[in-house]
Design goal:
Blueprint: E1 6-9, H1 24-28, H2 36-49, E2 56-60, H3 69-84, E3 90-95, H4 102-110, E4 113-121, H5 125-130, H6 137-149, E5 153-160, H7 167-180, E6 184-189, E7 191-193, H8 197-203, H9 212-228, E8 232-236, H10 244-247, E9 248-251, H11 257-273, E10 281-286, H12 291-295, H13 300-307, E11 311-316, E12 326-329
Helix pairs in contact: 2-3, 7-9, 9-11
Length: about 325
Amino acid sequence: MKKYNVSIFVPHEGCPNNCSFCNQKSISGKTTLPMEKDVVSACEIAIKTAPSNQGEIAFFGGSFTAIEREYMMRLLKSAYPFVKEGFFKGIRISTRPDCIDEEICHILKNYGVTSVELGCQSMDDEVLRMNLRGHTSRDVEKAVEILKSFGFETGLQMMTGLYGSDYEKDIKTAEKIIFLKPHTVRIYPTVVLENTLLEIKYKAGEYKVMSLEETIKLCAKLLVMFEENNINVIRTGLHSGGNVEEGFVAGAYHPAFKELCESEIYLEKILTEIKNIPPCEIEFSVPTGALSQAIGQKKKNKIWLEEKGYKVKFTEDKSLKKYTVKCCAGK
């Protein structure tokens, strides 16, 4: 059966902080709060159009466990019957690491929540302070420990290129996330949006954004790091659509960002394979489903290789693991 998710945005509701990068209107494209009828309607439409029991009802956009408790309970109560009846496998929420404790976990567990994502953004306390996050890296560690003790699928969201951060600090954040062994990760390159502190810092020359090229190289490395540690990266880059393009000021944003990163990964793997091979006819085998990434967006990788004198062919090999390349050189 086809897997499907129902995403319900709760824009900026409940968040106790106004982080340097945050403009939830731009990120989600939403300004009004969903009510019970909106949750029920979204679930009913999903059931009719793509019947399955493998999807999730996802509350995103704000700090779900920090919103007014009665309102949070109303949203959960409107979604839970669809889980109880078997139309969805569970409910997914996103929240802040300092808004998780045992009491809230008991509530989430009782109302069908199966996955909790934490916006940790960085594991560097100085970077967190500079971006007005209002929590520490220790809060992340404690929240992950509690969530795992309750059996929740636990996800962590990190941001690259934050104010006060750099390549090395972002790599260190990824290493600390890997140590915590979350089930999933999302990687969001920092984007400067209108009406944020970062916009003020950027226009004043106090904050320099990481270029798209630099960010692609960094996030390509992060993807490999998480893959090598069996952590599933379920999102890389902000979603296209919504109001992101409308509110965009600066930063590493591209609607096909993850594909650009994976193309970079495959190019690096290819360069390693051909390091001691002079220009010739050569066939590259890549994992099933990775042809477009290996060839590159607009055939960038293929064209680059051909300009270097290689006559290349790409094929799929279902026996290969993700981000691996096998080459067979001819004459």
